[in-house]
Sequence to fold (330 residues):
Amino acid sequence: MRNNRAMTIVPHRVAVLAVDQVVGLDLGTPSQVFGTARTPDMRQLYTVDACSAGGRPVRSTAGYQVLPDHGLELVEAADTVVVPGIHGGPALTDGILDPEVAAALRAAHERGARIMSICTGAFVLAAAGLLDGRRATTHWAYAKEFRRLHPAVDLDPDVLFIDCDDVLTSAGVAAGLDLCLHVIRTDHGSEVANRSARRCVVPPWRDGGQAQYIERPVPTGAGTGTAGTREWARRRLHEPVTLRDLAEHARMSVRTFTRHFRSETGLSPAQWLLQERTEHARLLLETTDLTVDQVAHRCGFGTAAALRQRLHQHVGVSPSTYRRAFRRSS
Fold:
């Protein structure tokens, strides 16, 4: 678990660094999501401001210019720096970054700031040398170009986001929302993140390991979806639900159900069940006083040992350590 730098009396400072050809939606995502994170008495937990090199206007890809209120001095003071996606410019086409911007990003990282990118903002981080030797992601459509420009980066374009503790990267568009909610959840726990998600009218959680939606056909026609069966399974996480049980509930053959399920979620039914059980266990550890054995039983892991093994694989800590960390946050 990363040190909880956001849990201070003073709101956690977020700098959104805009470079030329910035994607407008990505530029607004951190302000929208972090801006909704508040204490129960409505105190803001984050402040979010935008900046650019020299505070100069930056062209967006939406046909307008952005005039940030700050220059790179904002990066020097921020606790977290977010780089939105870009749809053009030398960082995307040639792997070249303004030396002033690159130096500011490296200095922020060296002093311990958390660095994040949304979508093709990963090209900016890579051009600054912050992703070499690290696992990272970006929009799947740019994976080939990213690998050409930055072979030293361990690119995984098949996930929504990757958290490497002090450097975090996300895939395209909505995955930036997922990453910001993940950071809020890590900093402040599920309750705060869920409230933020409700204010933004988005799902409160999608696992970073979930597959990006990479040009897979979406099933059409009445009765062909698996959403109802997924909801049915969520109410039975404590039971030994099998693939055949899921297929029978959906009134499909096992083969047809598996095909539809993967096309809709990007996961196999078994992977999805494990993911749901893990997240339910995390929620129970954060919000209840149930013993580890009771949590394991309610989430379908059966034994505390099985839950410990899964949590170690998923977040790298034991259930008791996870609970203590989030109880401190609360």
About this structure: The first helix runs from residue 24 to 34. The chain has a mean pLDDT of 88.
